[in-house]
């Protein structure tokens, strides 16, 4: 199985991403780190522990950056609620917060593993950028980085920027420049991972405590997506990044040139994907272009059914 670290900002879809990472038999979840994103770090670092505790998963969880490398944090309470996991009553997390920083936990995990470890990032890339900036010696220990963010098309936080890219575009630029294999899973594919009524029925039928908690999360998530975007079948972005590693055949990738806008007055955080090689630059990333939707959901449901 593939050893992975998940760096996240839960967040409803981050919660499902954590469960897919913990429950999928092809993955070995070694550690979880939290970053400020959808809501401030105090919530995301607690929420990560809550969703893992609900699922009976015992891995170290550490808190990382409270905000972007060089900007003010932008949050998304209108989608995820004031505490980041609107919907269910939140229990006290059984998992403690690891005393190490996210960078220290990632570094220790990379150094202790017998093979390179993949990092799946489902929030702004701040923690991953700090790791690569402060511990460049560890880059060879990272098998690859798979990130939910960006888009080959339009945005969801501004007309041309996706939320995770907009929050910390400098972090994305730093990670892209690191030379570590990088895969972007953007809105162009995650907008196909829709939480339809049939998906909710299948998930609830898993019958686990995790499934019941997840159903309350998805009810809230679909309601806010309907209010904000007019999409009652909310797009469950983050688990698609996990699926790239859990079930590679399920997400189609293209090797291409990826850059991010750092100075635009209207387009800050926009991802520029040069499929046609118009800029004459070397390809530097893999970009998701297709999703086997049924296979994706089957994997999510199966993972949730394996948890507590
Ligand atoms: C991304 O932004 C967050 O609100 C979600 O958790 C996801 O990571 C989608 O744009
Ligand atoms: Ca997220």
From TrEMBL:
Its EC number is 3.2.-.-, 3.2.2.1. One of its GO terms (cellular component) is cytosol. Keywords: Glycosidase, Hydrolase. One of its GO terms (molecular function) is purine nucleosidase activity. It comes from the Bacteria. It is an enzyme of class 3 (hydrolase). Residues 4-298 form the Inosine/uridine-preferring nucleoside hydrolase domain. InterPro entries: Inosine/uridine_hydrolase_dom (IPR001910), IUNH (IPR023186), Ribo_hydro-like (IPR036452). The keyword Hydrolase applies. This is Purine nucleosidase/pyrimidine-specific ribonucleoside hydrolase.
